[in-house]
């Protein structure tokens, strides 16, 4: 079962994807994580995208489609979770072509609905374990022990360079201009299932479980 988690920055895509990886053994494909890895390992592509990402603009379709193409294979186990991809109509068309080539298809597109005020709070309070990638929040999901990851015990906590109000404003505009048309695109195909992303993390998990069955 291949699914897309679609929603604005801070909607909870990464948080819910990790839960589905843990409970169902699905594979998370986050283009944001792949681009951040390229940026921190200093590859040519990473250097090219660093300033674009920090400013909150979208990276070119060509780059992100190439990243997804590298990771997709017939060996999807319990299925792929596309987190932060596709983000443009061109990416959506490329994804259906790539899946068709592998004899696979898309099961559901989960639209995570959250209003802008909540997104600002989520983004400005987020931190992540730099070792295992667990996602936290200063208020809604703090670590049990100050500065120490509940999942792996690391004290290497990081905040993203684009998690500031200026970049977030640009990220939101990019979302409304270029990504939100995908809501209509997948609705027309009959694949779209909205969830209330404003609910507690565990409530959102339950809504997604109910949709996936
Ligand atoms: P990406 O990494 O995909 O960032 P994003 O879409 O802006 O989304 P976020 O990762 O910020 O939010 P999320 O929805 O995963 O929320 P999270 O679960 O962390 O992309 C970054 C950049 O890379 C882009 O700006 C662009 O430059 C580039 N890029 C990536 N993909 C691209 C593509 N396909 N095309 C072109 N460019 C691309 O949760 C956020 C916070 O809220 C956390 O602190 C969490 O603990 C908390 N939280 C989560 N759920 C809840 C809840 N229900 N209640 C309360 N708090 C919650
Ligand atoms: Mg994310």
Pick out its properties.
213 residues, alpha/beta, three-stranded antiparallel β-sheet, 9 helices, binds BIS(adenosine)-5'-pentaphosphate, binds magnesium ion
- Main sheet record: 5 strands, parallel
The averaged pLDDT comes out at 95
Q: Quote the distance from N terminus to C terminus.
A: 11 Å
* Oligomerization state: single chain
Keywords: ATP-binding, Cytoplasm, Kinase, Metal-binding, Nucleotide biosynthesis, Nucleotide-binding, Transferase, Zinc
Subunit structure: Monomer.
Binding site for Zn(2+): 129, 132, 149, 152
Family: Belongs to the adenylate kinase family.
How would you explain this protein's 3D organization?
The protein is of the alpha/beta class and 213 residues long. Helix content is 49%, strand content 15%. It contains 9 helices and 8 strands. The protein has helices spanning 13-24, 31-41, 44-55, 61-71, 89-101, 116-124, 165-179, 181-189, 201-212; strands at 3-6, 27-30, 80-83, 108-113, 126-129, 135-137, 157-158, 192-196. The strands form 2 sheets. A 5-stranded parallel sheet has the order 2-3-1-4-8. A 3-stranded antiparallel sheet has the order 6-5-7. β5 and β6 form a beta hairpin. α2 (31-41) crosses α3 (44-55). The radius of gyration is 16 Å and the shape is globular. The termini are close together. The model has no long low-confidence stretch (mean pLDDT 95). Magnesium ion binds at residues 13-14, 30, 32, 84. Residues 126-162 form the Adenylate kinase active site lid domain. It comes from Parasedimentitalea maritima. Monomer.
């Amino acid at each position: 079962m291949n699914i897309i988690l679609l929603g604005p920055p801070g909607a909870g895509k990464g948080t819910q994807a990790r839960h589905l990886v843990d409970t169902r053994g699905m594979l998370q494909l986050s283009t944001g994580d792949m681009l951040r890895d390229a940026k921190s390992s200093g590859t040519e592509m990473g250097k090219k995208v660093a300033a674009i990402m920090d400013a909150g603009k979208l990276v070119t379709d060509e780059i992100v489609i190439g990243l997804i193409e590298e990771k997709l294979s017939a060996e999807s186990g319990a299925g792929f979770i596309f987190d932060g991809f596709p983000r443009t109509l061109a990416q959506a068309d490329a994804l259906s072509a790539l899946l068709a080539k592998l004899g696979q298809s898309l099961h559901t597109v989960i639209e995570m609905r959250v209003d802008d005020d909540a997104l600002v709070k989520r983004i400005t309070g987020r931190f992540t374990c730099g070792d295992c990638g667990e996602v936290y929040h200063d208020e809604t999901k703090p670590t049990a022990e100050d500065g120490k990851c509940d999942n792996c015990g690391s004290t290497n906590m990081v905040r993203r360079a684009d998690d500031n109000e200026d970049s977030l404003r640009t990220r939101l505009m990019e979302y409304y201009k270029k990504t939100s048309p995908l809501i209509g695109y997948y609705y027309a195909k009959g694949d779209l299932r909205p969830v209330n992303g404003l609910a507690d993390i565990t409530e959102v998990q339950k809504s997604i479980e109910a949709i996936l069955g």
